Amino acid sequence: MSVDTSAAVRSHEENWQPVLELAVEEVFEIMLGCRVRPTSKAEHQAGGEFTAMVGLAGALCGVLSVCCDAQTASRLARRMLGDIVESEEQVSDALGEICNMVAGNFKNKLAGMDGRCMLSVPTVISGGEYEFRSLTDGDTLDVCVLFEGAPVAVQLALHG
Amino acid sequence: MDKVRALIVDDSSVMRKIVERSLRQAGIDLEKVVEAANGAEALGALRENKVDLILCDINMPVMDGLEFVRQIGTVANAKGVPIVMITTEGSESHVVQALSAGARGYIRKPFTPDQVKEHVVPVLGKKL
Prior knowledge:
The complex is a heterodimer.
Chain A: E1 3-4, H1 12-32, E2 38-39, E3 50-58, E4 62-68, H2 70-81, H3 88-108, E5 110-111, E6 117-119, E7 123-126, E8 140-147, E9 150-158
Chain B: E1 4-9, H1 13-25, E2 30-36, H2 39-48, E3 53-56, H3 65-71, E4 83-87, H4 92-101, E5 105-108, H5 113-124
Parallel strand pairs in B: 1-2, 1-3, 3-4, 4-5
Helix pairs in contact in B: 1-5, 2-3
């Protein structure tokens, strides 16, 4: 699947939502061996104890984030690594890599983006007393999936 | 089948473990795995270790994977060692840059063990 990014068809909401959904599904299926499908964000509010972020700069500018509760982050890490997860650092690392792969996979599906969009290294915030606000001013795409019954929220917040 | 000594370069320790596991799942008999978190660490590791294969990410702090590939010729131990990039940077321009700099293969994340096998086994040549 590849979507043209030329100005004529750059309606983010219409064209990029299924691309982001597919990017998320592929990362979960290939790297975690788990089939997920988008679900209603309103019905499944993801806990916010772990938030991983990857910045996008260049032709596509914004922040992609992956957010879930601590127990889900730990289960995601165990699924990626097997039973060798020993520390919160590894949990953060795993969530950061999931975020990184979703961002890269999404970007790689956009035709015309070749070499014109760069990704930052991932950043992960954990804890209970924080609020995540992206200072972007463009469209926001949201994908919520259930991983072993728990919601994982993926958001792409774009600069206008 | 010869045993293989591999250097895995990625700023994520989780991803280094996954790459190592994928190599084993691909049927590659690993004698030794050396890990590095960025290109500069990898150059240092190569001065201390002889390896048969290098798997390298691109987006890393300190020294990225493309710069590492460009500088690898400065390390005598690394002459002729095949390099396969494993990265989320899947654009054609990144592939061209990596291959021009001397990489022999390019795997996009997310990846399966089969894709690792497909790209790594040919560059190992008679090692397998």
